[in-house]
Write a structure and sequence with these properties.
The complex is a heterodimer of chains A (306) and B (311).
Chain A (H helix, E strand, L loop, with lengths): L1 H12 L9 H25 L3 H4 L14 H6 L5 H6 L9 H31 L6 H10 L5 H14 L6 H9 L3 H13 L3 H8 L4 H12 L1 H17 L2 H6 L8 H10 L8 H29 L7
Helix pairs in contact in A: 2-16, 6-9, 6-10, 6-13, 10-13, 11-12, 13-16, 15-16
Chain B lengths: L9 H7 L11 H29 L2 E4 L1 E6 L3 H7 L2 H34 L4 H12 L2 H11 L6 H8 L11 H29 L3 H9 L4 H29 L3 H5 L12 H11 L3 H26 L8
Antiparallel strand pairs in B: 1-2
Helix pairs in contact in B: 4-8, 4-10, 5-8, 6-8, 8-10, 10-13, 12-13
The chains are: A mainly alpha (306), B mainly alpha (311).
Amino acid sequence: MSETRALLTAARRRPRRFQWRLVFPWILVTLAVAVSVLPFYWVLRTALSTNSMLASHSGSLLPAGFNLGAFARVFGLQSPAEAIAQGGSGASISFWTYLLNSAVFATATTVCAVFFSSMAAYAFARLRWKGRDKVFGLFLATVLIPPIFTALPNFLLVRNLGLLNTMLGMVLPYLFMTPFAIFFMRQFFLNMSREVEEAAMLDGAKHWRIFFQVVLPNAAAPLATLALLTFMTQWNEYFWPLLVASDDSTRVLTVGLGVFKSQAPQGAPDWSGLMAATLVSALPVLILFAIFGKRIVNSIGFTGTK
Amino acid sequence: MATTTIVLGRRGALRDGGARLRTGRSDVRIALLFVAPVLLGLIAFYIVPTVRGLYLSFTEYSILGSPEWVGADNYQRLLADPLFWNALVVTIQYVLINIVLQTAVALGLALLMHRVAHSTVIRGMLLMPYLMANVIAALLWFWMLDYNIGVVNQLIDGLGLPRVAFFGSQEWAIPTQALINTWRHMGYVALLIFAGLQAIPETVYEAANLDGANPFQQFTRITLPLLRPVLALVLILTVTGSFQVFDTVAVTTQGGPVNASRVLQFYIWQKAFAEQEFGYGSAIAVVLFLILAIVAFIQMRVLRGNESDLA
């Protein structure tokens, strides 16, 4: 007994022997982490700087002339004159609107696509009907179609419906499903135990009741993961919103950022304003990642496909 | 009667175990209800546009008015269009640099995650760039790589080397785009490969150790061959994605300087939306589609992605 304890404390005192052969691998890991993460610090540092001082302090690790003006500029809290004096363009840029548009776009598409896709996934995994696997194969095949190819005709459709520069037009193609969501949920349903469903079925419950009252609550964890992944993808979407919603009132953040970048005032870009805007755009995803990081990291892999 | 099963196709019948369910009836009605929304989405936003896109590629259509059938004119024009060939060459250059670099770095990172750095926090930090929008990655590097006051050029200058015009010079425009996207994707691809590494049983390595195989031999003789199906999937995924590069180009170089970074998807966008030549834009999109299909097919064949040596 005491012997074991002695061994344990010894092990605790020297948890792992220092191994020379691990020095080089750890240097590589540190380097990779630095390359991945440090740029984000640089964005923050620049956003907190004063434009006119960036050039003379371009190597300083701390903000050059600490100042919150860039954030004020992004949210339209500065007067045009004030903004121009600080190196901004003076043109109004309404990030609140873009932020709201991005939130509505990402939320609406996530909620609807995840919901409809899981219904379909259940039908593909658990219901028995003729042609089931052929129809599922059709959904699989859509992955091969490059988004640009369908984007042009989809643009025409949205335009013909008179929905250009509207939120509805922007969310429409994503509202019904994403192929990924169907595969993801189908895989979960295939591996789910049948017992609870069968018990409910013996009680005479209908499929739709089983789905909503038994299956969905049991799928809360994969649904949450799927919703997270879908939301982040939608939040980052650029090409489609650029095509159908370039209007100032319907712009999402990614499109707004592109516009902000192209307004180079006085020859030079408003770097601190641009970096503040970039940070604001990244923040929601960063927050989600801070909370659900482990879930997101563990969801990546080929667990779904065999 | 209770064991009557509906033919589901091989995989379906295997996974379903349908015979064990109490009834033999088919669930067609309820299934239709469950599938209706996604089927509507599939038809309206995938199948119909695919057919329509194909049709448009044989028309002249300036967005106003209506499409006019011109046969294969667009494709003939495309063959003689130097800008199209330039876009193709530039895109292939981009894909090559991006994929070679990205896969090599990711493979290294995956091995490190597997053998040395087991922490989820480290994996998370390496994944961070991938969670950012392309636009954000582009702007972040547009600033860091700025010729005059970007921090990277400050470092280069500090080392006594000549500054690099990452976005402003023709020879650097494409490598820079490839580097930005490599930065964004390396952690993600590493995680995919890492998942594949975890599927290789430890016993294989133990046996190799007993046989006196050194780490390098273990890597080339065991890890790489057993990783092949995963690498094949990763490559098909990343190569097809890479061919469709657009966002980072659109927010930084806009195809320039001159035509140095006018990649295929940017050229399509330009033709269809900036110059309102929808028919011609669609024809280039068809070509891109074909290229992707062929590349994916070849990769599948060469890498035998659907077979595993882990019997």
